[in-house]
Design a protein that fits this description.
Elements lengths: L1 E5 L3 H16 L5 H21 L3 E5 L16 H23 L3 H23 L4 H26 L6 H27 L2 H20 L6 H8 L1
Antiparallel strand pairs: 1-2
Helix pairs in contact: 1-2, 3-4, 3-5, 4-5, 4-6, 5-6
């Protein structure tokens, strides 16, 4: 999180309003007329500055995106998936900036990170494309729909029975969504995990046959 200053526009409006009011009801052709209105506008600006001070707000820093290969070098089907994922990331980023609840913002960040990894896996393993397309056609749009609803209710500034209850349900489901996305990402590596397990078993068998496991290597050398 980084702190930034959000300047109030009230002092500017106050000064401008003073000028407008003076011009409507008083003459403005002599030098002392300008001196008076400038003094009044300055006083209005300073007063409004005290009443409506600048606000220091915390803004969550977004991690710099990693360098990626241009989409034109991707397979058309993969490029379409990546483009769709990019639009979803942009919408979630907009919602994260709009929503005021910091805990919800943090969970949206986690969802974005997981979603990006799931979508980008299409570039590495085309066999995952059917599963990723299902993720893009239902799970991700539904999540974004819920976040949009939360954002609209958050803008109302109240937590009545209907708004408050719905917002709490969405807040609670975000943890479940994060867990489900983690499982979805893990599932994409099922084939790779199987390949790794097979390679380990083959290597383990070779090491045993060659006497290179469990201290057999030294004994074999001595026997020779």
């Amino acid at each position: 999180m980084r702190k930034t200053v959000k300047k109030s526009v009230a002092p500017i409006y106050a000064a401008a309003g003073t000028w407008l009011f003076y011009c409507l009801f008083f003459p403005l052709y002599a030098l002392w007329h300008f001196i008076v209105v400038i003094a009044l506008a300055s006083a209005a600006f300073i007063t409004a500055k005290k009443i409506f001070p600048d606000k220091v707000i915390e803004v969550e820093e977004t991690a710099k995106p990693e360098k990626r290969e241009p989409d034109k070098e991707l397979d058309p089907e993969v490029a379409a998936i990546v483009a769709e994922g990019r639009l979803a990331m942009a919408e979630m980023d907009r919602l994260k900036k709009s929503i005021s609840n910091n805990d919800v913002k943090s969970k949206i960040t986690q969802i974005m990170i997981l979603s990006d990894k799931i979508v980008r896996n299409a570039e590495k393993d085309k066999t995952d494309i059917p599963r990723i397309k299902k993720f893009l056609s239902y799970y991700l749009p539904t999540t974004i729909k819920l976040l949009n609803s939360y954002d609209r209710m958050d803008e109302q500034g109240i937590r009545g029975e209907n708004i408050g209850g719905s917002m709490r349900r969405i807040e609670d489901i975000l943890d479940t969504i994060i867990e489900a996305y983690e499982k979805q990402l893990d599932a994409l590596f099922a084939d790779e995990a199987l390949d790794i397990e097979t390679d380990i078993e083959v290597l383990d068998g070779m090491l045993k046959r060659e006497g290179l496991k469990n201290g057999d290597f030294g004994k074999t050398q001595q026997g020779n």
